[in-house]
Each structure stands twice: as C-alpha cells, then as structure tokens.
Amino acid sequence: MENHKKIYTITTIREKGSRCVGFYFDVIKAIKNVVDNAQDINEVGYYSYCVIEEVEEGIYFLDRKELWFKWDLDKHCYVQLPKKPKRFSRRVCFGIG
C-alpha cells in the first residue's frame, strides 16, 4: 500500500474572495502559524476567517478535514472555532481545487 504524504493548506478568507497563503506537512506547524498570524496573514484585519485543510495527492481530494479560525479583534489573533461556520457549509476545496 502506498503511503501518501498529506499537506495542510492555509487559506485566508474575506467577504468576497480567498487566498491560499501556504501549506505545511505538519498540522501542528500549520496551526501555530495561523494562531500566531505569521507574516501577517490576516493583513491587518482584511481576512476574517482562515481554514486549514488536510489534502492528499490527487484531484478534488474529498472529504477533507478542515480546521477553522476566526480573527479576534480584541486578542489580535486567529482563534480556532469548534466547527465550520454555517456561511461556508456548502463550500469545499478552499486551498486547492
């Protein structure tokens, strides 16, 4: 059986649009960089949400595991959400696809 390496894409999202800002092979590093707002991925409040998607090799790899974050204005950082926001419930493949 082949061992497929997973990547964890990081995509920032605003009202109209999104951008995949990078990926990691290690989900812990991905989470840390999102929470730390590494290299100002929030762009001073421009991107309200951020999602990390677990992706394997292939085309339209589904079902993807998603970790969701929302920008906290008071703490000036992304805070992990318990589940996917309802407004994105019908959307998949944010980072690749």
What does this structure look like?
The chain is mostly beta strands and 97 residues long. The chain has one domain (7-88). Helix content is 9%, strand content 36%. The chain has one helix at residues 27-35; strands at 7-14, 17-24, 49-55, 65-72, 77-80. The protein has a five-stranded antiparallel sheet, covered by helices on one side. Strand 1 (7-14) and strand 2 (17-24) form a beta hairpin. The chain is globular.
What is the typical, i.e. mean, pLDDT?
A: 91
Number of E strands: 5
Q: In what range is the share of β-strand residues?
A: 35-45%
Q: Helix segment count?
A: 1
Given the helix and strand composition, which structural class is it? Answer: mainly beta
* Percent range of helical residues: under 10%
- From the alpha-carbon coordinates, what is the Rg to the nearest angstrom? 13 Å
Largest sheet: 5 strands, antiparallel
Count of discrete structural domains: 1
**How are the strands of the largest sheet arranged?**
2-1-3-4-5
Q: Span from first to last CA?
A: 25 Å
Return the string of H and E elements.
Answer: EEHEEE
Shape: globular
Question: Could you name the key traits of this structure?
Answer:
97 residues; 9% helix; mainly beta; single chain; 5-stranded antiparallel β-sheet; 36% strand
List the helices and strands and how they pair.
Elements lengths: L6 E8 L2 E8 L2 H9 L13 E7 L9 E8 L4 E4 L17
Antiparallel strand pairs: 1-2, 1-3, 3-4, 4-5
Give the gist of this structure.
With 97 residues, the chain is mostly beta strands. The protein is built from one helix and five strands. The protein has one helix at 27-35, and strands at 7-14, 17-24, 49-55, 65-72, 77-80.
